[in-house]
Amino acid sequence: MPSDKSAVLTSSPAEKALADHQILDHVYGHLPPEPRRTPMRELISTVLSHRTTHADEELAYDRMLEAFGDWAGVEAAPTADLAHAIRTTRWPDTQAPRIQEILRRIRAETGGPFDLDFLADWPTERGMAWLTDMPGIGLKTASLLLLFNYHKPVLPVDTHVHRVAQRVGFLGAKVSVEKAHSVLLALLPADAETLFNFHKHNYWHGQQICFFLKPNCARCPLKGFCTYYQEHFGPATAEALAATPDKWDPAAWGKLPH
Ligand code: SF4
């Protein structure tokens, strides 16, 4: 952890991004890269999750496989029947043909099995291009799958990562979430373990401390070099820095989400 957190206040975006990573790595704890779920589930669940609660997405996923047995059954099902099975999602009539098209492309690539492990052997750029060409699959989903499941050096950027990076000041205020994928990636070491931890920690930070409406700056260990903090409260004082907890306390503040 940098000994003088305020020393990077005027540093370059790359230095700030690295300081953010080092400090949050210490606060939340370093993690080994690991998948959230199997590659097929990651991909298909993402299509189901658009504007849908997690519970309804899971219900749709389970009902789909109960109704048609396996991926071959889902692909071959009448599209209207698939839409009915996933009706707890927001746009079943749009998602059903998308899922079937994704399954068709996977089968065409593997020659049969519904398995994405060929992505492990492909260069990152080829895998990214193949995934983002699928209907309903954007940069964030493709990056999550390639980083979490295949340890490729890419960075998923969601709304939390985007907000923290902009407030701390290593991402421009006008850079979109889509564009931030390449901008932030260029600031960080091209190493899957670092990128995995950067993503997870900044995601948690946006969810737990740097809230959209009222960021909890008093508890934030990034305040010493955060542009938003400086603009709203002035430079962080030695007292404020000393009073900032530098480890997440699950007993006091709750367990971090997966
Ligand atoms: S100091 Fe405040 S605005 Fe800056 S990152 Fe921390 S919580 Fe967010």
UniProtKB/TrEMBL annotation:
Its EC number is 4.2.99.18. Keywords: Endonuclease, Hydrolase, Lyase, Nuclease. It comes from the Bacteria. It comes from Hymenobacter artigasi. Residues 48-208 form the HhH-GPD domain. The keyword Hydrolase applies. InterPro entries: DNA_glycosylase (IPR011257), HhH-GPD_domain (IPR003265), HhH_base_excis_C (IPR023170). It is an enzyme of class 4 (lyase). GO terms for molecular function: class I DNA-(apurinic or apyrimidinic site) endonuclease activity. Pfam families: HhH-GPD (PF00730). This is Endonuclease-3. The keyword Lyase applies. SUPFAM superfamilies: DNA-glycosylase.
